[in-house]
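User: quick one, fold this
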Amino acid sequence: MADILGSLRRTHYCNDLRASDVGSEVILMGWVQRRRDHGGVIFVDLRDRDGITQIVFSPEISETVHAKAHSLRSEFVIGVKGRVENRPDGMLNFNIATGAIEVIITELSIFNESKTPPFMIEDGIDANENIRLTYRHLDLRRPELQKNIIMRHRVGRAVREFMNENGFLDIETPFLTKSTPEGARDYLVPSRVNPGQFYALPQSPQLFKQLLMVSGFDRYYQIVRCFRDEDLRADRQPEFSQIDLEMSFVGESDVMATGEGITKKVFKDALGIDLETPFEHITYAEAISRFGLDKPDMRFGLELKDLSDVAKNSSFKVFADVVKKGGIVKAMNAKGCIDMSRKDIDDLTAFAAIYKAKGLAWIKVKENEWQSPIAKFFTDDEKAEMARILDMQPGDLIFFVADQITVVNEALGNLRNHLAKKLNLIPENTFRFVWVTEFPLFEYDEHEKRYHSLHHPFTSPFEEDYAKLDSNPLDVRSRAYDLVLNGYEIGGGSIRIFDPELQKKIFSVLGLKDEEVAEKFGFLTDALSYGAPPHGGMAFGFDRLVMLLCGETSIRDVIAFPKTQKAGCLLTSAPDKVSHAQLQELSLRVVVQE
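Assistant:
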């Protein structure tokens, strides 16, 4: 093997070769994509991470090498030396970059043979995802996944270049840290040298990056691994990466301008797209009012309209009673969709029910009448007002949800996105960014009868809202901001609390006792008392951003070795049981509850 590698040093990647290389001698290395035997001449598509090149074994060039090539099969690892030639007339392949040339082989080395793979190593395969994850090392050979991982590298490089050029310091923060309340469940790590005590893997470096601001490092960043033990879906993983940054002596506009600069650099370097900045801004209240969700997809219309004022005095008891009980009635105009079948409407009703909507009322707008079971309950004046608000025209189909505020917004907001996909309303290759600002600082948990931070408890409220912390916490606005792209939250952050007394006040509103604050966050409140600068920052979901750049719908397709939706690694069979001796060393005993 040493002699083979000594005589064959790769001079080119497969995709490097062009017509200008005709006549030159090259050395290529890679995997056999496929082998074809045509009348004594053997053609092989050789694949490496860069692409595919056709190589040719002819008995007229070397009988020995040609005979050896008969043994080649898919996924054999080989090295070849040969001369670049133009392909014969009529044999060009316009589907690959090297389709105008081929390499006539004079030397062949077979580095390793391969068993038959469980699926084809090519794009567009119809293989079960569990099989692909079990053989992830093979799945990663496929060109589409290799392009995704290369894109991930480009994005990371662009981010680091931007941050380094703008005075940010790349500083690592600990993985073994303290478990603190709020947020998702922690992943815990038992300590051998401190029996019965545990570290937590960080859900984010939030507290440490704030401590770095107190320490005088006024511009910090890192592309960091984070860990959250939460229910998984297509855009969540138990371990994930984020672009994390923090800045001192800044306001919202400074941090958002930096976020836009990162995004602009990434899109230019990764896709060659020049983004226009600044991005659009809307408040949280406007986002919920118009789109039902705080991460609105701005690429299409279908905006929601509040009809509560019309409905509350109508004779349609279902609507009127909801409004009297503090709920709302909202509607959405699916323009031109009057021909939608009853089955289609039933399917949409079932979709809305996923988000706890008890029903989905509808009206089909005809030339001289409304076709609907609920039309008879509205007066002509009420119909005229609804028609004005919803811009109702003949051929339109109107959908209504009446319920508590959160149910209506979540049901119609998600139905809006679902319907846009169904009706092909979303333009392809379009990127629409929007900053969502002025989030509520708190939300109230009816089950626990206490307030929670909508983002995290270190987010600063607007100064003019301080007085409401005692009188009406739900009306307090936070100095938080989320960056939304095509309906996905790709980043978010806030101006932080730097006054230790205000931080203690926020903990108090959240129902944390003084002793609990001292135990869990004492190191932070103490640090803030030693001259903490005003500071703020944000974090981008690195995996989610790469997913959107690659045009994928799951972050599993842009992570080299992802976990399943049950947080397992099928490749390595993790998590797994450990020996009794290991548990004893950690002073642990496993009790599986039925």
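User: anything notable?
Assistant: The two ends are 55 Å apart (CA to CA).
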